[in-house]
Amino acid sequence: MAVTIDLSGKVALVTGAGRGIGKACALKLAEAGAKVAVNYNSSETAAQEVAQAITQAGGEARTVQADVGQAEAVDAMIGGLVKDWGRVDILVNNAGITRDNLMMRMSQDEWDAVLDTNLRSAYFTSRAVLRQMLRNRWGRIVSISSVVGLTGNAGQANYAAAKAGLIGFTKSLAREVGSRNITANAVAPGFIETDITAGLPETLKAEMLKTIPAERYGQPEDVANVVLFLVSDLASYVTGQVVNADGGMVMY
Ligand code: NAP
């Protein structure tokens, strides 16, 4: 008999799900039967297309707008979801941005924007879903970190700090809620082909490819597959972990 992952009856919220890795996660969770809330900040049309793809395939989805770096917007989004759909069982903290610069030149705006969107957001979203997860005695929180949060990267002190912060956040949360059947894990992607990496110089990409044992760049689905496992019952005894989806780029 084949092993199946069945998320029917579960409600999932994926932040930044109109594009890239978030889109792949939303589609993957819906494919497994979850009702999916497709969060976006500015990409309304793209988010609507993701929700439509899910409903056309027989699933259930809706779009929800919020800047995840803003507490009031997050509270309103999650409050609305719980009111309409009764619960949020699965939270994927995926939304993220880069504002690269060398430390000497990094402005406070560049620092704040990345920390707000990539780290403060996980505090806001997790805080907003936790109470009802605790009541329901089931929950899955997966945060998309980065291998850069493990290794550091020149020109990305803000991004690396936020991504490393997500890992400490995840481990602390896992300890707080582990007894209630709620897991918190992080996924650390390596080099994934999305809009975020599209603008990098070809020479840099070629250099990076040499450091990847799998000898290929990652695809959004490579990350979504790990997220699917972590939110499933197959991973009920996996919590507080960082799972790399990087083709072997970083091993520790
Ligand atoms: P992407 O294609 O640029 O997508 C970024 C997503 O984040 C978009 O859907 C965007 O939504 C959303 N977002 C940005 N600011 C937001 C905000 N304030 N509120 C809500 N949503 C917001 O990038 P990606 O590669 O898929 O990245 C997804 C996650 O993976 C990020 O956390 C990134 O750091 C992480 N990651 C990516 C790689 C990689 O190689 N691609 C590697 C490691 C980690 P809107 O378009 O609506 O603004």
Characterization of this structure:
With 252 residues, this protein is of the alpha/beta class. It has nine helices and seven strands; from the N terminus they run E-H-E-H-E-H-E-H-E-H-H-E-H-H-H-E. Strands 3-2-1-4-5-6-7 form a seven-stranded parallel beta sheet, with helices on both faces. Strand 4, helix 4 and strand 5 form a beta-alpha-beta unit. The longest helix has 29 residues. The structure holds NADP nicotinamide-adenine-dinucleotide phosphate. The site of NADP nicotinamide-adenine-dinucleotide phosphate (NAP) has 30 residues, from helix 1, strand 2, helix 4 and helix 7.
Give a quick summary of the entry.
The protein is an alpha/beta fold and 252 residues long.
Strand order of the largest sheet: 3-2-1-4-5-6-7
- Given as residue ranges, the uncertain stretches (5+ residues, pLDDT < 50) are none
How many individual helices?
9
Bound molecules: NADP nicotinamide-adenine-dinucleotide phosphate
Strand content: 5-15%
Task: Label the structural class.
Answer: alpha/beta
> What is the 3D form?
globular
- Please give the number of β-strands: 7
The helix/strand order is EHEHEHEHEHHEHHHE
Measure the end-to-end span: 35 Å
Major sheet summary line: 7 strands, parallel
Average residue pLDDT: 98
The rounded Rg comes to 17 Å
- What percent of the residues sit in helical stretches (DSSP H or I)? 40-55%
SSE layout and pairing:
Elements: E1 11-14, H1 20-31, E2 35-40, H2 44-56, E3 61-65, H3 71-85, E4 90-93, H4 108-136, E5 139-144, H5 148-151, H6 157-177, E6 182-189, H7 195-198, H8 202-209, H9 220-231, E7 242-245
Parallel strand pairs: 1-2, 1-4, 2-3, 4-5, 5-6, 6-7
Helix pairs in contact: 1-2, 1-9, 3-4, 4-6
The chain binds NADP nicotinamide-adenine-dinucleotide phosphate.
